[in-house]
Amino acid sequence: VMGGILCVNVIKYERDNDMGFSEKLQEYARLVARQGVNVTAGKYVLLFCSIEAAEFGRMVEEECYRLGARDVIMIYKDQKASRIRLDYAPLDEYKTLPEWQAEQRNYYAREGCVTINILAEDPEAYAGASSEKLQAGALAAHKAYKEFYDIMDKGGIRWTIAAVPCVEWARKVFPGNTDAKAVSKLWESIFKTVRIGRGDTVAKWQRHDRVLKRRAKILNTANFSALRYKNSLGTNFTVGLADCHIWKGGSEKCAEGVDYFPNLPTEELFTMPDCRRADGSVYSSMPLSYQGELIENFRLDFKDGEVVSYSAEKGYGALERLLSTDDGSRRLGEVALIPCDSPIAQSGILYYNTLFDENASCHLALGECYPDTMRGGELLSEEELLARGGNRSANHVDFMIGTDDMEIVGIKKDGSEMKIFENGRFVI
Ligand code: ZN
Ligand code: ZN
Questions:
Q1: Ligand number with the minimum distance to the CA of 332
Q2: What is the mean pLDDT of residues 66-84?
Q3: Which listed ligand is nearest to 361 at the C-alpha?
Q4: Ligand showing the shortest atom-to-Cα distance for residue 338
């Protein structure tokens, strides 16, 4: 099906656009391998790829080899097969991950790999599936891949995530269109979000990176102790920022000193909250797709950093599952600011995919923090990190809270205040 639709797209694009569809696709594959994960000579590449995206995955594979990759290990993911397994395999099979399977990822992490994730996911692939199995599977994977994640947390692995359309996803984003038309529209909007089109893609990404870095510097200089959010949805919430937190955005540097972009696209500035300091209520502003199920119009009430009560108009069970995964799942691991005039927000498209939607709206994440959003955080043990307010969890789930009337005030240690956001936009 994918192949056929791809052909339809080629014809459409070559008629309408400055750059043909196949050219844009090639540029995208290059972007993933170069700006995305920045493959350097002699590196192993673990390339996780949705089976629906195989064609694009092979293009990325080739780009990696062109950049001097030592080997590219293709690991295909099949959501439909996973769904069948969820419906039939017993719960016990989800509770542990065989050693041989864990070793694949851990081995390459030890050998110094980079990882690429190419997603083509149906946001509702696992709707109604066993929540117990999904949760057990997530916990078992987190435990089995501990070595991999530890190396990653210390900046030892460059990684990137990018997405391509699949029919189910496109239908959800552009309902009321033929499948071919919906997929075509989704391709077009993805290319826009990753700045592929007229002009030099690399130069555009460099410019974008500079803007993000400049704003991060302002926030880092202010060194706020907390942020207070308010909007008409009902959000009235204060979150503490960890001591020595660092605002980050755009490209990152791995331990080897090589730049990479963990997410394509990326519009956010983000940092580490103190997981012991969050009080008040937060209302979601966009649906959240969690483990293939949608959670909509939900509210979280925090006290001393922890979610103490919650509600959801849709997907309450999934929200409950998310919050009960482990202790850290009820606390925050990330605070991110995105103005409502960012290109993705301006497009007005709801992607039902965190990679895009998180770049359209201010968000928070429940669960694991990013140790590198604290000065020296990568060097701390789990206990030390926790003692400084860095959250630990098997989950890291972003959810959107930004609106075009969001007001955010930064509060400094001495109690003085500074307005950061007004009407959903930066005022700094
Ligand atoms: Zn984020
Ligand atoms: Zn996040």
A1: 2
A2: 97
A3: 1
A4: 1
Q: Six-digit token pair at 94? A: 């989800």
For the CA of 333, the nearest ligand: 2
CA of 399 to the centre of ligand 1 (A): 9
User: Above 60 in pLDDT, residue 2?
Assistant: no
List the structure tokens of 170: 């496109």
- Nearest ligand to the CA atom of 367: 2
Q: How far apart are CA 56 and CA 62, in angstroms?
A: 10
Q: Which helix (H) or strand (E) holds 74?
A: strand 71-77
CA–CA distance, 7 with 15 (Å, rounded to integer): 13
Predicted confidence band at 9 (pLDDT cuts at 50, 70, 90)? very low
288-328: pLDDT as tens digits? 988 878 899 999 999 999 999 999 999 999 999 999 999 99
Q: Which helix (H) or strand (E) holds 206?
A: helix 201-222
Say how many Å lie between the CA of residue 338 and the centre of ligand 1: 9
Reading the block at residue 71, the tokens are 């080997």
Order of all β-strands in the sheet with 396-400: 248-249, 269-271, 332-337, 363-367, 396-400
Q: How far is the CA of 285 from the centre of ligand 2 (A)?
A: 16
- Tell me the CA–centroid distance for residue 179 and ligand 2, in Å: 30
Cα distance between residue 265 and residue 130, in whole Å: 32
Task: Give which of 315, 305, 241 is closest to 271, Cα–Cα.
Answer: 241
